[in-house]
Design brief:
Helix content: 25-40%
Strand content: 15-25%
Number of helices: 9
Structural class: alpha/beta
Number of strands: 7
Distance between the termini: 38 Å
Order of helices and strands: HHHEHEHEHEHEHHEE
Radius of gyration: 17 Å
């Protein structure tokens, strides 16, 4: 809940109009998304889930880049999913991308997609929009197939950028109910270590964003 408004209702309110020009505006400050997609490298018939798929922009780019893989998208906003479904259809990818409405903190992959787990899971600027984000990350890690990997891109701390820029960015993001997670990297590292998973983190665009990959071993450690 956010105040007295459920999170799904809040997201529908925020994006009911914005979804129509979301992709055009976000390309200027949701940096690192294409770099994340380039690093997915799913094999033929492997499965890729995006948690918080929004307009479907990332799923479409990934499906075009890796046509032999299978793609799935989850979002809590019905408005965003409507836009995503239209875009997927427009690109002729209905047969390769499956969309479903669900909560990142409690979704059941078997009930939504008839899958026990996924080979790649993507969270692209969704961690900063999910209030109990730690719960969502843990669920994503629990949903990885052996040998699979979680790929996250989200806001860094802009430590190498002017202080005025950082102040403006934080103010701007707050208007869309977005909160950069100051302890994102530390939390993810701890979760990876606890599970015996591999952890990689790369700063992007002078610490504007972090790209983080957590890989589950194919065999138990």
């Amino acid at each position: 809940m956010t105040g007295t408004i459920a999170h799904d209702q809040l997201m529908d309110r925020v994006y009911r109009l914005q979804r129509h020009f979301y992709d055009f505006t976000r390309k200027y400050y949701l940096l690192g998304r294409d770099r994340l997609i380039d690093g997915l490298n799913p094999a033929a018939n492997e499965t890729v889930l995006e948690i918080g798929c929004g307009t479907g922009r990332n799923l479409i780019c990934a499906a075009q880049t890796y046509p032999a893989a299978r793609f799935f998208g989850l979002d809590i906003s019905s408005a965003m999913l409507d836009t995503a479904a239209r875009s997927v259809n427009r690109h002729g990818l209905d047969g390769n991308i499956v969309l479903a409405r669900g909560d990142a903190t409690s979704f059941d992959p078997d009930a939504l997609f008839a899958k026990k787990g996924f080979d790649r899971i993507v969270m692209s600027y969704s961690v900063s929009m999910i209030p109990p984000w730690q719960v969502a990350v843990r669920l994503a890690l629990n949903t990885l197939n052996p040998g699979g990997s979680l790929h996250i891109v989200d806001f860094g701390q802009q430590e190498q950028l002017p202080a005025l820029f950082k102040s403006f960015l934080v103010w701007w993001l707050r208007t869309f109910h977005v909160t950069p997670r100051t302890d994102l990297k530390r939390f993810l590292f701890a979760e990876a270590q606890k599970r015996g998973f591999q952890f990689e983190a790369v700063s992007h665009a002078r610490d504007f964003a972090w790209l983080i990959k957590i890989k589950r071993p194919r065999n138990p450690v």
